[in-house]
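Section 5.1 Outputs to date
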Amino acid sequence: MYKVSIKAVLPAPDGRIVLLLNEREEWELPGGQIELGETPPECLAREIAEELGLQVAVDAAPLDSYLFEVIPGRHVFIVTYCARLVGPFEPQLSHEHRRWALFAPQALPSNLPAGYRASILSATKAFPT
């Protein structure tokens, strides 16, 4: 059995994507483990509020899902969704990550895992221009 992590592709008001730097020095999408009784959109709203102090609306349908090998021999099932801000963009970093940053979809960092990269590229097709 694998842990399940729900992640969001969240664009800032300027269209760049919000990423968080984790303890492995990899960029990742905001989100986290779903709790018993939560829907994936509820999980993402809670996680993004905890990690960044932001309020979001989350699409009902998932964007992507895949099995991710976090470290050799340790896998997590990732499900990604599109999210949109519903309040001001004033991120406040929690203790869970080292920092946050914004990246253009066509200029993503090299230390972003391939699955997150694919989700971002798929999501940008759904965002209004």
